[in-house]
């Protein structure tokens, strides 16, 4: 899976936020192992969602506008149904599992908010100058 840098940054953000919620859940959730497993499953699903969104956008750019709209809609519905299935499964197992899966799925959203910070840090690590080259007169 050859992903662009933005997807890798999202994966890092998902991992960081999932780890933060895992540590927080240590103190608040009982039984902890159900919460931890559900959080990991939700976070892995969030990673697959991020890649699926990237792949969908990549494919739709090569399609005709009408066909691209239908393709993107179908892929979006599939992602939504997978999320709903995980959440319903969490409800059926235990309320703690539902909370864990839901938070795990939300790590993608949190990762998107953390992305500018992560991108800046990765630019420093890679030695990339992220300032704009604008000449001032």
Report what the structure shows.
The chain has four helices and no strands. The chain is mostly helical and 137 residues long. The protein has one domain (5-119). The radius of gyration is 18 Å and the shape is flat. It starts with a helix and ends in an 11-residue tail after the last helix. The mean pLDDT is 90.
What is the secondary structure topology, with strand pairs?
Layout: H1 5-28, H2 32-60, H3 65-93, H4 95-126
Helix pairs in contact: 1-2, 1-4, 2-3, 2-4, 3-4
Throw out a few tags for this protein.
137 residues; mainly alpha; single chain; 83% helix
Briefly characterize the structure.
The chain is mostly helical.
Number of E-state strands: 0
Summarize the amount of helix as a percent range.
over 70%
Query: So what's the overall shape?
Result: flat
Number of domains: 1
pLDDT averaged residue by residue: 90
Distance between the termini: 46 Å
Question: Would you tell me the structural class of the helices and strands?
Answer: mainly alpha
Rg measurement, Å: 18 Å
Beta-strand content bin:
under 5%
Low-confidence stretches: none
The SSE string, one letter per element, is HHHH
What is the count of DSSP helices, taking H or I runs of 4+ residues?
A: 4
Characterize the main sheet. none
